[in-house]
Amino acid sequence: MRITMKYNIHTLKNGLRAVLVPVPATQTATVIVMSGTGSRYEDRRENGLAHFLEHMFFKGTKKRPSAKAISEELDAVGSVYNAFTAKERTAYYAKVSARYLDTALDVISDIFLNSTLPMKEITKERGAIIQEIDMYEDMPMRTIDNVFDELIFGREHPLGRTILGPKENIRAFTRKDFATYLKRNYTPLNTVVCVAGSFDEKKVLAKIKKEFGGLKHGNPPDYISFASEQNAPRVAIKEKKTDQTNLMLGVPAYPYLHKDEFALAVLATILGGGMSSRLFLEVREKRGLAYSIHASVDRYPDCAYLAVQAGVEHGKLEETVKTVLGEFKKMKKTKVSKAELEKAKNYIKGTMTLGLETSDEIANHAASSLLNIGRVRPLEEILKGIDTVTAADVERVSRDLLQTSKLNLAIIGPHLHKDRFSRLLKI
Fold this sequence. Notes:
Layout: E1 8-11, E2 17-22, E3 28-35, H1 49-56, H2 67-75, E4 80-85, E5 90-97, H3 101-114, H4 119-137, H5 140-153, H6 167-172, H7 175-185, E6 191-197, H8 201-212, E7 234-239, E8 245-252, H9 261-272, H10 278-286, E9 290-299, E10 304-312, H11 317-333, H12 338-355, H13 359-373, H14 379-387, H15 391-401, E11 408-413, H16 418-422
Parallel strand pairs: 2-6, 7-11
Antiparallel strand pairs: 1-2, 3-5, 3-6, 4-5, 8-10, 8-11, 9-10
Helix pairs in contact: 3-8, 9-12, 9-15, 10-11, 11-15, 12-14
């Protein structure tokens, strides 16, 4: 028996959308408030502000005057709560046992709508964020995408900058910067409140209307669009003393809702999804070059990329790059077998179904897709889309995307000579 998820969308008078997703079979409920803004909406001087502001929302409201008051109330009901900032969305959430949903909804609404942004807390939090930057700097696996993003999008485009921003910006932000950003970017038209799980719909909708109905109108912020004009392979090296070399190798791909989005997902899975994927078998099992290697697609409304990521021994970097490119070449030359195509499709369908099993994942998916594509995309629609992909589609997409002139290689490790790697980039 397949249970079809119901997404009940209500638009408030000010344009804010509330999505209620009843999942009666669960004993949990999740509330997430997501805003369609992030580091993509910053200029160079503001870079890091979206993420810093997300931290500040937990520092106190009139009703809950300190970070301690906020965390104690959520801890007292055993809640799992947090927030995240991405390049184009920022979200605040709490997952609770269904009986404590009132508390979660009250606290998350309060921090989103009524944060006081005290100057003394801003001063203190600068230190915490600089430590966060340093923490990630010590984890090349977590920062290789920053090197890759700057390479593929360029330093001047907001997508090419980091989400955390540079330290000099973190030290310079004033309370006025936060207030200005908040007013410009956190508008009802680009905000979604989603509650998923076991709850009383009528009661929850009344609470959302009461709390969020007063948010002032404002146009959603604009972003600078991006179109790749790459016509030659590129290499970026961040020279760093590390125990292993981290690399990302990829190409521009298709944005949201592109006619070949499902074929692209299948291609990425065949290359590097799971432990029986081509790259995993070739790079790890056959050659022992990496502990883990995977391929993924990063998408936006106007652009995207397909990239492979791995960590390898310094001296084996060239061999790894050649091996990955060899697999790219095979994808273009030889049609995928029926068995491999089916396995990749089933892998995607299985992992997606598992991923949308819990109230927090359901809420995140509903809010994200409403902001990204303007509607909630049911799981059934995605599974159907995956089913339609043929071997010919995968081959066509491989030929379209996997081209020498479109290659980007980002490296973190003790390497100096770009030319050495540029010469390898041929498929």
